[in-house]
Design a protein that fits this description.
CATH architecture of the largest domain in chain A: 3-Layer(aba) Sandwich
Number of strands of chain A: 14
Oligomer: homodimer
Strand content of chain A: 15-25%
Chain lengths: 365, 365
């Protein structure tokens, strides 16, 4: 088999931390083995540190980030519930679709692609729809490179509306403060700033989200993603078998979280911030124009309009084939016109920026 | 981190094939990278060989076997549909629960634990409920070690009832003949006879299952498991992004399927048959009594009543701690009284049988 080696600077997967890759090869353990359960416990403890939460119900869902999104909605929504969803990109749209499939009445609060949601508009919607059950926002919109501000939404604490946040592209890359921001349900993915291969979705639920879960009239429509059942295995003292945990992926997540916490979570944030800023300051000299206004840019995911005379497909193909560098194309309206350049997890290094800028300089000269 | 090394002779996970472990460490590729898509195509082709099918829609679902079960039901069932389910163990029960959460009216056809379902009873139920949408059976009941016969159910071809089969514990261990048996929807898991870590669920859908999918009134309640959307990415010519594929796990599945097909699928079946028979012939001399009548035993998963004077927990703990051998305890009524001993995938070796019999001989003497 060819062992093609890429520098992964797209919207994810990133290059995993070497610690995660090494851990994938750990000898297999049974999902009820005391040693595996010990690793799982430690993984949940490390996830709490990274989510900045003391939530007991903090665990890796056994599927990718989009399943984490679905896990949050199927557990918190019952048919006929209203759900307020912020939409300024692909992943806000996906939340609407997932919520609708749970039978929700979706109230959309929109902003244009490339612009942040206005927290006041979201809070206005909450005031207009006081019986809404959740208000859902994507923290870091992977389709546009925009950061949506979450902290002001902590005002929802004083309502009966739960705050549901997508941190797939933000967790461990920029500050995420689950407890301080009053986030009730939060999911992420492993293949971005956590620096693990894709395959797991860390999820955390607050006490009031758990209370909502326990007060449901009907069981969630998904058995696989039923957090009450999953929690009995993952976090319950009796370890009731639910499904076979993806053991190797849990090993990898455990190891990457260890690497991040050894570096220090704030240090990892600062590293993402530094390399992202350097990239964003350097791109205009090559003819790129940043999509997102200053103050709302994600350091870990930069969107940039291509230089006027550059052809998207040709340039990305040359980067991939000549240099082994992957960057991401635009989605939706951005397709063919903008790039998404990720500097996430282990890929968030000065070396990555130097390499990309050097290659682009050669290709565009 | 301790790198504890077990001989995994429980109901799964088994010890992965070394080829699968090596492939886990392949350098990460993006999920839209042409090289990864090539590996994915080859994986689907290999899955068709192992499922014995020419079904175009044959792919790995990005979660464990139970999610494969849910994928089959959410795509094929609409609220109010009748579903006939064979129940003679935990996984038949799970099918009923998953079907109910899709809004199905479940018709149960039962057999006692440790005994096979009577195919005639299932076909009788199909005659009594001609408007049922699916008839679902577990081929290899992981909770009891029983093989349920699937071939006679090919008679459903002449009805409008789709045949849905769980091959989590059978695929690549004993003959599974998707096309020849007229199976319309079939799912498996990677961590049993396929010899891959847990984390993916291979699924295959027949033409008439796809027609059912396309004729649905409403979209499936799960977005993550919506096979129409998944197929657009995995198997469609346009490769429409759906979710980020679990790249490393696909590498591992690809490699293990390669190892199995290099050995020869029939040779792999024969290997499972030989080691399972040897174990089953040897256990009575140690005081164990086989649970399942001859002719219905799975070679890859043996259930045996413990010797009258043996204590389940003590004996399994000694096996695990002294010898590093994992066997499975009983579920439900079998808890504390019977064991489940797996010889699956890479664990299905004469060496495994010799080791286990030697250890048990020492512990029970």
């Amino acid at each position: 088999m060819p062992l093609t080696d890429r520098l992964l600077l797209g919207p994810g997967p990133s290059n995993p931390y070497p610690e995660a890759v090494a851990a994938l090869g750990r000898p297999m353990l049974g999902h009820m083995d005391p040693e595996f359960l010990g690793v799982l416990d430690e993984t949940m403890e490390r996830l709490r540190e990274v989510f900045r939460t003391s939530n007991a119900l903090t665990l890796p869902v056994s599927a990718t980030g989009s399943a984490g999104m679905e896990a949050c909605f199927v557990n918190l929504i019952e048919p006929g519930d209203a759900a307020i969803v912020g939409v300024n990109g692909v992943f806000g749209e996906r939340m609407c679709e997932v919520a609708r499939r749970c039978g929700a009445d979706v109230v959309r609060v929109e902003a244009p692609w490339g612009r942040p949601l206005d927290p006041e508009h979201l809070l206005d919607a909450a005031r207009d729809h006081p019986r809404a059950r959740v208000l859902a926002v994507v923290h870091a919109e992977t389709s546009t490179g925009v950061e949506n501000e979450i902290a002001p939404l902590r005002a929802l604490r004083d309502t009966d509306i739960l705050l549901l946040v997508d941190t797939v592209t933000s967790l461990a890359g920029i500050p995420v403060e689950v407890d301080d921001w009053g986030v009730d349900a939060c999911y992420s993915g492993t293949q971005k700033c956590l620096g693990v291969p894709p395959g797991l979705s860390p999820v955390t639920f607050s006490e009031r989200a758990i209370a909502r879960l326990q007060a449901r009239d009907a069981r969630p429509q998904s058995w696989y993603l039923d957090l009450s059942l999953i929690a009995d295995y993952v976090a319950g003292s009796s370890r009731v078998y639910h499904h076979t945990a993806p053991v190797s992926m849990v090993f990898a997540l455990h190891a990457a979280l260890g690497a991040i916490l050894d570096e220090g979570l704030e240090a990892a944030w600062a590293r993402h911030r530094a390399v992202g800023t350097r990239l964003q300051e350097s791109l205009p000299a090559l003819g790129f124009e940043l999509v997102v206004p200053e103050g709302h840019r994600l350091p870990q995911l930069t969107t940039a309009w291509l230089p006027p005379d550059a052809d998207d497909a040709t340039l990305r193909k040359a980067l991939l084939e000549t240099y082994g560098i992957e960057v991401g194309g635009g989605l939706g309206d951005f397709a063919g016109r903008a790039w998404r350049i990720g500097l996430m997890g282990h890929s968030a290094r000065d070396r990555s920026v130097t390499t990309l800028l050097g290659a682009l300089g050669e290709l565009l000269s």
